[in-house]
Design goal:
2 domains, alpha/beta, Rossmann fold, 6-stranded mixed sheet, single chain, 6 strands, about 280 residues, elongated
Length: about 280
């Protein structure tokens, strides 16, 4: 998937989330009248249509900010469903608070019922949490299915060929559902015999050829497995090259990592990240 297509898909997902929240709000506003005979007509009892429309637009913007701050729009390739549901719950809880405030502002004074609005906000929060969680579970299943068949892949190049580089490459290879395609390694020579045997056809070039490789290849993520102490100057140069030639995400493999980590043993170095994930 190209970066532009990925961006369009992400923006569409955001709009879908907001549409789902408005549907949950509509269901929550209608729920109290079905539960008990409360004589209200919330959908008609507004002070000024223009003001109410502006407040509703502001509510949608506040929802978007709350969901984004909760982490719903970051990359979830390596995040489990439990963590995603926790993010959804946190984001929708904040959205429910905004709904309560919106109800207080939109509906006229004689009809105000703080406790009823609190009930509506709770119903909204539950409906929104369930709906957004189901969407994420379904989209995660579909995404893993497609990635295992070669779609929506992130193309990765590893700088270095030591044991840490091999461990990282093996972790990507063993988990096709993550959607990472290892394009190869960049190093002056194979540093580890195991890497040379396993990935003998994956040596893309020498360290000095990195600028040409970055310009010629479509790389989404560049993972640096070089030792920081002895290759600090080279790593700094790699950071600058990525900024100049290729808008890819740059990561570094730490010296130590847990063997059964839920994600590849990589951490971002120097905060360089130019692509939406």
């Amino acid at each position: 998937m190209t970066p532009s297509n990925r961006k369009v898909l992400l923006e569409s997902a955001k709009m879908l989330d907001i549409a789902v929240l408005f549907a949950a709000l509509d269901a929550a506003v209608s729920a109290p009248a079905r539960i008990q005979p409360i004589q209200i007509a919330l959908s008609l009892d507004i002070r000024h249509p223009v003001e109410s429309f502006a407040l509703t637009l502001a509510l949608g913007v506040a929802w978007y900010i709350a969901l984004a701050r909760a982490g719903l729009y970051r990359s979830h390739r390596l995040v489990g469903i439990r963590q995603q549901i926790l993010e959804v719950a946190w984001g929708t809880a904040v959205c429910a608070v905004f709904v309560w405030l919106w109800l207080l502002l939109v509906y006229s004074e004689p009809r105000r019922d703080i406790y009823l609005y609190f009930l509506i906000s709770i119903v909204f929060g539950l409906a929104a949490t369930v709906s957004l969680s189901v969407i994420r579970i379904a989209s995660g299943v579909i995404a893993r299915f497609l990635r295992k068949r070669g779609y929506n892949l992130r193309h990765v190049v590893v700088v270095g060929s030591n044991r840490r580089a091999t461990s990282y490459a093996d972790s990507l290879k063993a988990r096709a559902g993550w959607g990472y395609h290892l394009q190869g390694f960049i190093d002056d020579d194979w540093c580890d015999a195991t890497t040379a045997r396993t990935y003998q056809d994956k040596l893309l070039g020498r360290l000095g050829q990195l600028p040409e490789i970055l310009r010629a290849m479509a790389i989404d993520e560049l993972v640096v497995a070089l030792p920081m102490a002895s290759f600090y100057v080279q790593i700094s140069q790699i950071v600058q090259l990525c900024k100049q030639h290729n808008p890819c995400s740059l990561y570094g493999v730490p010296i130590r990592f847990r063997r059964y980590s839920a994600k590849p043993p990589a951490g971002r170095i120097l905060g360089h990240n130019h692509s939406a994930r």
